């Protein structure tokens, strides 16, 4: 698993990005704002989602319930239920994508690799006419 210092660093970078993102996009939001803010911030949701991918876990539900809620309670004190977290993940899709695009990708060096391995398809049936 990733060390606590890296988790804190990832959260700080994510939180700064989310604050700037919300400031920039608040004039473009259509509809009414929610009356209550969610218990978990957008930065916390994105950080947990990236920790899942960095940690090498296979099942997100077990990662969230048995690792985040049990072992990382001090780091994420306002965790919500798994079902609510999945709802929050859906609402943070745009900021998470923009964070990955702007902050997590390296600079292009001009050298690119393309994998041309064919993907096998099982029982590839053509539609009948």
How would you describe this protein?
The chain has helices at 4-25, 42-55, 60-71, 82-91, 93-104. The protein has a domain at 46-104. By secondary structure, the chain is mainly α. α1 packs across α2 (42-55).
What is the structure about, briefly put?
The chain is mainly alpha-helical and 129 residues long.
Mean pLDDT, to the nearest integer, reads 86
How many strands, which pairing sense, and closed or not: the largest β-sheet? Answer: none
What is the radius of gyration computed over CA atoms, rounded to a whole number of angstroms? 19 Å
Classification by helices and strands: mainly alpha
Q: Termini distance?
A: 53 Å
Task: List segments where confidence is low: pLDDT < 50 over at least 5 consecutive residues.
Answer: none
Number of strands: 0
What is the 3D shape?
extended
| Strand coverage percent | under 5%
Count up the helices.
5
Provide the succession of SSEs: HHHHH
Which percent range fits the helix content? 40-55%
